[in-house]
Each structure stands twice: as structure tokens, then as C-alpha cells.
Amino acid sequence: ETVEALGQALMKFNGAILFTSHDRTFANLLATGLIEINNGQAQRLFKDYEDYIEELESSLYQEKETVIKPPSNADKKLLYEEKKAEQKKLASLEKKLIKLRTQHNELMEYFTNHPTNYHAEKMQILSELNREIVETENEWLILATK
């Protein structure tokens, strides 16, 4: 009743009203024109609200009925080969990470056992190992989450 009363009062107003509503009763009662905003574009529609809703529902129904063609044998083989290559790359990255972390741990053990000896070259190698470990882990993560 409240929606209808508001609609009746607004219909008596002698000016333009721009409104947004999800209430079909209110929109049907008051709307004399429609503006659709979709993908950043505004478009004036020359139809009433019920026709607009019917058209939307029809297009959604048609989209649902679109048949998805199953992949062909060639597509399946290509997908299999791609997946196999990704798994091989993941295994390679995992081996590389083990090697990098082993080198990192050896350097850290050296620094722990020799806290007073400063070696710029070893610090440079440690820095490079840290960078390479992060890059390899990121590459692994991207592949692993596909």
C-alpha cells in the first residue's frame, strides 16, 4: 500500500522524476520511459517496464539454452599436452627451489658459524639467492594455481 500511495502522489507531481527502483509495482505505476545503463553506456529505451523485463528474461533464457559443444579429440589432446608440460615445468621449478634453498641454507649456516667474518661476495650471493627464490616461488605459484 505504501508503494502504491507514493506512486499515486508522484503521478500528481507536474514535473520530471528520475528514479531507480527494484519494485516492479512501483516502476509499472510510475515509469513512462526507461534508461538502461549497461557497460558504462546509457541508452533510452522506448518500451514500458513490463516489456523490458520480458525481453531481459527472454534473452537470459536463450543464453541458458545455448549448447556448449564438447571438446574434440584434437582439443582434448592439446589440453592434455599443455597440462603435461605445465606439470613438467612445476616439477622443474620445485627441483630448482630445493637447490636454491639448499644454497641459501649453506650460506646462512656459514654466517651463523662465522658471525665476525664479513664477506661482501657471499652477501651478494645471498641477496641474489633471495631474489631468485622469490621469483621462482612466484612462477611456481602462478603455474600451480591454474
| Mean pLDDT over the residues | 86
Number of strands: 2
Low-pLDDT runs: none
What Rg, in angstroms, do the CA atoms define? 32 Å
Helical residue percent? 55-70%
Determine the oligomeric state from the structure: single chain
H/I helix tally: 5
Helix-strand pattern = HHEEHHH
Q: What structural category do the secondary elements indicate?
A: mainly alpha
Q: What characterizes the major β-sheet?
A: 2 strands, antiparallel
Shape: elongated
Please outline what is shown here.
By secondary structure, the chain is mostly helical. It has five helices and two strands.
Explain what this protein looks like in three dimensions.
The protein is mainly alpha-helical and 146 residues long. It has 5 helices and 2 strands; from the N terminus they run H-H-E-E-H-H-H. It has a two-stranded antiparallel sheet. It is elongated, with a radius of gyration of 32 Å. The mean pLDDT is 86.
